[in-house]
Amino acid sequence: MKSAAAVAAFKRRHPARPALVALTGTDIFQDGRTADVLRETLRVSDRIVALQSHMASAVPAEFRHKVRVVFQSFVPPHPLPEVNPDKFEVCVLGHLRAVKDPFLAAKAVRSLPAESRIKIVHVGGALEPEFADQARQEQAANRRYEWLGELPRAEAVRALARCRLLVMSSRAEGGPSAVSEAVACGVPVLSTPTSGVVGLLGDDYPGYFPVGECGALKVLLRRGETDPAFVAALRAGCDAVRPLLTPDAERRAWADVLAEVLPGGSGKNSPF
Length: 272
Hints:
Elements: H1 4-13, E1 20-22, H2 25-28, H3 35-44, E2 47-50, E3 67-69, E4 88-93, H4 104-109, E5 118-123, H5 129-141, E6 145-149, H6 153-161, E7 165-168, H7 177-185, E8 189-191, H8 195-201, H9 214-226, H10 228-241, H11 247-261
Parallel strand pairs: 1-2, 2-3, 4-5, 4-7, 5-6, 7-8
Helix pairs in contact: 1-3
């Protein structure tokens, strides 16, 4: 946990002052070398801020009473870029890492029928050289796959907003910002049911497919292209959570957390 030393130092200097710790996905998936550090940080914290509702289950039971959920807000670009009506572009947004299973979507579209217009647009840098090589090889061999590499965030979001769907194929996710960005941009999501995504979209969201299941993803992609009722159900699921991802909602959530730990709560001592 990157902030562990800072939290410990703050509590040593100011033991009576509240310390709020925000958990990220990296914090949740701890190994044996860092789990003790995380536990100590959670122990001395006064509130633990989770980015999605399932994060609390990853916190040791003795500290769960401190957990408060604050969804990360996102303001979409205005105006939103237009979707090309002659294409059915599907975005994969994220760095090329093993935990992301980054080429699952590319594999899923290799054998689509000729009449399908689906094309995977992959945005994200390769953190390991072999992934860059694999992306180039996939792009050369698969006409339905395009790797754009790492883009500035604004350009990456615009690339996402031009697509019909977002695919999240991760084997594990703690609090994926790409899902919040897709929801804010009105782009429905197909995803593995990782804790980070289910904590945002809910258990009943209809766009989940099993981890690593290329065939299941292929079926959902094809349904997304050909079944308007399925797309409407995906949109409805995303629309239901969009109000939670606005800046006003995030400010209110933070004000509620601060009201619990600061004298005067959300009044003069709160920046909100």
